[in-house]
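ARCHIVE CARD
Drawer: 12
Card no.: 0347
Subject: one protein chain, sequence and derived structure
Cross-reference: see card 0346
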Amino acid sequence: MSEYISNPDEAKEFQNRYRTIFIFVVITFIIFILRLLWLQIFQGNELRRFSENNRIKQNKISAPRGLILDREGKTLVENLPGFEVVLAPQYVENLQELANVIGPILDIDPEKIIEKFKRSKRINGAFTTIRLKDNLSREEVFRLKRIRLDTPGMEIRESIIRHYPLVENGAQIFGYVGEISKKEISKFNEKYKNNFIFEQGDIVGKNGLEENLEEKIRGKDGVSFIQVDAHGRKTITEIPNIYGQQIIDLDPIHGNSAYLTIDRDIQQAAFQSFTDLKRIGALVAMRSNGEILAWMNAPSFDPNFFATEISSKIWNKLTSDPFKPLRNKVIQDHFWPGSTFKPLVAMAALQEKVITDKTVLYAPGKMYFGNRWFHNHNKNGEGHITVYDAIERSSNVFFYQLGIKLGVDKMYNYISLLGLGSRTQIEMDHEAPGRLPNSVWKKSLGREEWQPGENLTLAIGQGYVMVTPLQLAVAYNAIATEGKVVKPFILKKVVNHDGITLYEKSAEVVRDVTLTQPNGYKIDAATLKIIKEGMRRVSNGAHGTARSSRIPGVEMAGKTGTAQVVSFSADQIYKSCDSRPIQMRHHGWFVAWAPWDKPEIIVAALAQHSCSSHAALPIVRDIMEAYFKKYHPELIVEGLKKGPKRATIISPESSGD
């Protein structure tokens, strides 16, 4: 049996390797020790905080927006409780499987869920929650809760749904809300930097008063904390203190409520009238101090569709409608005023002493000027008439003659004092300025100089002049009040949740046109009285174009108007309007106030493509009747007792103020 004999030379050969391994092990051990010391001693507090925070989830509690109420405190816009389903991208394990499971429950194509998920993750990042659907039904909530343990990343949350109980009535003025876009976040944070911080997922006002009153009616969001597991799901264990600090939930602060000048009853009467008569167009009813009582656009839309996520089908239907239901026609669109412009031309002619109230002009069925015929709406003409008759009967030829004698600049100098051609400055965005032309304006466009024949078309409210319904209401109100141009307003006051008034609006007279204005012009009270009498006869005279609008016990004053939307040749002008395609039919106007001598309410109604002003008459009558039945029922009762009363003609000298 042989013995093992060590070889010193062989041992020396491995000695350097052992030393290298030993040094490596020692250095590695030292690194681990130093790392542990660093993590435990130097970063221990911070890492512990991270660890605690990782199992605590912070949820924003959206604050309810303030209510929007009418002048009497009746609800116009409110909030309703609801549920929404959201996804937290960082906790979603299998997107395709999740979409396939919850898609049928929500009646959403799974591919659309995947597309929305990826788009949000790409645009907003991996930690921004994605709202899939809100205003869930009970059935949807029940079915989602049954599967929530098997669908990591899905969460059902309580939400607040903005609700519009009037539905389509007044949608363009109330507006709607929607989720803030990524582009809007920086814009809103800059605009409201002293009051709010906006984040992805916030609901903000997108249109109308919801947008304009954002700062006043938006509440302040609260926050709650829950303990979650590794999948982001809420656990039932009690939330611990985070690193010795107590976690405190913050309750949301309810938004302030806005009281409008709108009268819900008058607003409802306007909507009902447009609906029953099947009219398209716009209407505004205003008190003589500028308070808006009703605001209508037809056709309209249901803003409740926007409070939840609007479907592409409904959106496409709204945007493709040729009559533009999303447009706020009362201020956003401007139209030819037609014959409603005539009293303003008469006012300028009287003030320039081109005529007096006793001047008689011959008004046949047509007149020749330049190289063409200008036609009267009544082809038989009106004969020899005064300015009272011309306004009452709406004679075109009479006003053609005034247009020739005045010229565009003199018309502009007086009529502009009533506010036409400029914004009313009502507290609503996107108001159109309208257009009141003069010779300088046309020249500034690089066109030919103002032509004499254009004075004739301007004098009957056609050609270049364009107005909004609100502008006409303000201008007529200035005539009714004998010189007071008011600033219309719709927000009456803002009240916090404790009932304390934070803001209150007062009526404002912009100018008194009976006083000399900066342009050197004014309109005498005597001139306005003459115009008022002519407009009184429109509703009450034997030949008045609005005599069918009479209300027992209430005398109105105003002016009808039929505005052509396209030009017609001489052989086509008297042909039936109803036989033309609807887009080629005339617009019908009626603007009136009551009582005629002591004005309280003024209504401007536009019936688009209705062929005649007669389409607007019953709308104004319905509004007036609703107003006086509510605020002065004794006038209606007394008028019914007296029975039909024959119209009387009174001179401005005996008409009173």
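Annotation on reverse: Residues 8-42 form the longest helix (35 residues). DSSP finds 22 helices and 22 strands in the chain.
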